[in-house]
Amino acid sequence: xxxxxxxxxxxxxxxxxxxxxxxxxxxxxxxxxxxxxxxxxxxxxxxxxxxxxxxxxxxxxxxxxxxxxxxxxxxxxxxxxxxxxxxxxxxxxxxxxxxxxxxxxxxxxxxxxxxxxxxxxxxxxxxxxxxxxxxxxxxxxxxxxxxxxxxxxxxxxxxxxxxxxxxxxxxxxxxxxxxxxx
Length: 182
What we know:
The chain is an all-alpha fold. Among the domains are: 47 residues; 53 residues, no CATH class. It has eight helices and no strands. The two termini are 53 Å apart.
């Protein structure tokens, strides 16, 4: 946007184009060009410079992000947590320990996205699960129990008697294939 404002300042200085033409050329609204023109007339090109980033400055300095990423890659157990599963609350604790900056959970999620971490959920399986027994069941018992489409034959999901193909689709009068009128 700063480039557009500076180009607009050059166009204002030439005095050849109308504000509407400048707006079309730059792909912005006429109101924006009018606002820029007023600022340019009062303060010149310097008045059209961008004000910098919008919003609050980040709490963490960008140089600390690789340090946090490396720490998180060590795993939760390296920081004294009982399980090997990261949660937003645990990440917030680690960030506070490393940098002294306290984040709320939504901000922790944005931080993880900035570090290119993604949401991953662990597979939920019973601790008592016997993989050998599961493979055995899938290979021997499942084929006997599984219903196949070919074995069932052609059927209908309706409990009513199937309509023959020769019947008309509706009882409404009209030529075959015509759209119904509503």
